[in-house]
Amino acid sequence: MRNQFDAIIIGAGHNGLTSAAYLAKAGKKVLVLERRHVLGGAAVTEEIYPGFKYSVCSYVVSLLRPEVIRELELPKYDLEIIPLDSTLTPMPDGDYLFRCGDHARTRREIARHSTTDAEAYEQYGQLMVQMAMAVKPMLGMIPPEPTTWNPKDLFGLATVGNHFRGLGDKLLYGLTKLMTMSSADFLDEWFETDVLKATMSASGIIGTFMGPRSPGTAYVLLHHYMGELDGAFRSWGFARGGTGAISRVIAEAARHHGAEIRTEAPVDQVLIKNGRAYGVVLESGEEIQAKVIVSGVDPKRTFLKMVDSKNLAPDFIKQVNDFKIRGSSAKVNLSLDGLPSFTAMPGNGPHLTGAISISPSLDYIERAYDDAKYGDFSRRPYMDIILPSMLDPSMAPPGKHVMSIFVQYAPYHLKSGTWPAKREAFGNAVIDTLSEYAPNLKDIILHRQVVTPWDLEQEFGLTEGNIFQGELTLDQLFFLRPVAGWAKYRTPIKNLYMCGACTHPGGGVMAASGRLAALEILKDTQRSFL
Known about the structure:
This protein is α/β, with parallel strands linked by helices. 37% of the residues lie in helices and 19% in strands.
């Protein structure tokens, strides 16, 4: 049996690595166990084809918490984030919408479609920044439990109440609408240009099994609006070296402080005795003990597969079963012999260094959702695209490029057939649709990788392929995430904690859950068992 550790982290996703780094920095003896051959979970860079490096799953960064960057001193390990400064939305008729960091140019571009919207866009942006600033403190706080008389929870609830009460009527009214409305309805109150509303509403459907007209998607829009780079809200970037670079630098910080990280070490079971977790058993049969076990995987995989049900109350098991974790996203990564040329903006140019959104209208995205709602992948899907090699030439051989295509919708549960059987047809649908906007695309494809929800589950351990380890709906946020009564990273099993995106504040390459979980573990260890 191996020497005992202070903490074992299950899964080397970026949140697990973050927890490991904070615990190791506090002087704890930490072991991270990762089932794959490479670190990072869904935040990973892999050279699938010689010379071509893919950010296989997560592909942009914005939500990474500034306090994590600062406290773990990540720039010391060569963290570099390159801004994504623009979004191009090509339209079927050859027209386009182009927004960029140049405020005056963006205003002129929107005015080309609607002078009314150009005026409203600035006011909308100011309000969204205010609302993002209002919600931002929630990302860094432990969710208080509203059903207890514990003084700390009561104080936490009072703090939240006072915070929102101090926002003023206009802002509070806007937040209330955001929390309950669909992204389409919310944007309808501001704009009249369909392509503008569609592109902006897309942030509200990423990673959810909802369409832009589904209530609750406006909050998801705000969740993505809270991203910041160097203090600038709604800023997105690309990590030099791919998204796996984020995981790499966090892992380097963890190792610097003494953490041990093992790959190809899948955990089969959490060991429990008298209601306390005391170790894990690997699939190889190896048993490793620790005083604290921290799961970076989702609640279904943790409690329904790794923990014996006899250790859990039936009501808790039911809540875990009811936790909505439906996968709706897929990824297509391409190796290209040259650059795509879009009919709307032919040839090379600054538009290829930002995001490209295939979201020409609200009806287009809603119809894509309709396909998934009835058990099929979208035949004409929403796509969010970047060309990483335009930002970081090391991602592809000289003169070649890689294209990263995030796709909605791809439901985990298909009404007919299986994902292994449908994978190539889905990839074809993505390429066919994109080729309508970039006609030369098929001629320059050298390789392609199609990552379906089934692949995300099988290869990356994401139940049903859900990229957030659980949907960001109102009934699964804050003190309800992942399970009512267990939102403080603790679980009904003593010494077993959760640190993944299934906990508050949710998904994205944020590292907030990993940090907050570690801080709570350190509070507990100071009181008792370490």
